[in-house]
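Batch manifest, entry 17 of 40.
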Amino acid sequence: MTKGFTISVPQPIEADPIEFFVEGTEEALYAYPPSGGQLAVMMAGISGDDDAEGVSGMINGIFAMFDDETRAILRKRLLAPDHVDPFGMNEIMQILSALMEESTDRPTESSSASAPSRTTTATPSRGGARRQVPATRTPSRRTGS
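Output type: structure tokens
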């Protein structure tokens, strides 16, 4: 006879996307707050023995937070040669850090009396005025965490 068990899983919650902008990309981009499961998969990938698998797991975990259109835009920018578009992993990590701050209302770096505080608002770097999301694009809703 086989023994078994059942675990309780909470009901999915509706997550609102976080809008952000990246220099060189005209449209608004959208990501969802990272779930505990996504963070666990990324951390497991980082700590693995296989470097390629770790990088792949981390990138897949990060990209799972983006809506389909944002994922395609960022993937295209990552695959472009540096002389065409220098956007790379450093910028992806900045986006991840900002998303974690936005979703938790907690800074990812310790504050220092000598260091000015960073803002992580979804404003473009040109001029600081908040841009409007184009009417032709509505972020898809995602449920669950």
